[in-house]
Amino acid sequence: MLIVTDENVKSLIYERMVEDALRGVLRQALEITQEQGLPGSHHFYVTFDTTHDGVRMADSLRAMHPSEMTIVLQHQFWDLNVDEEFFGITLSFSGTSQRLHVPFAAVTAFADPHAKFGLQFHVEFEEEDESEYDKNGDEFTDDEDYEMPPIDN
Prior knowledge:
9 strands, single chain, 2 helices, 31% strand, 19% helix, alpha+beta, three-stranded antiparallel β-sheet
């Protein structure tokens, strides 16, 4: 159980919460694949930022993909292991097996064309300071300045 105190809560960053939840979809898809393989005609495209901290890959692959790389999980992948923060996988590149270690935070896109499903992610967020801003970029000084939008019934 998480105990929330003033010391461990800076602010509610909803965009971060949504991104984390959507990355959970990718994590679950990979966990299912790790346990039972890809069902039917499902296959995945996973795009990630190769410059992100924690991405581990062969220097030769990084030279060919200096900023971004898309991998395909379909027929030839091995040793998929999924952790809370990253996944590892072995793929064949030009007949040579290469191991990749990819933090979920580095993933920029995920797609399963068979299911006609895809997600795009932001790799980094800029932390806002303690103040809040309205849709015009004007700063709110306290909650009294915020007017709740009407709720349609």
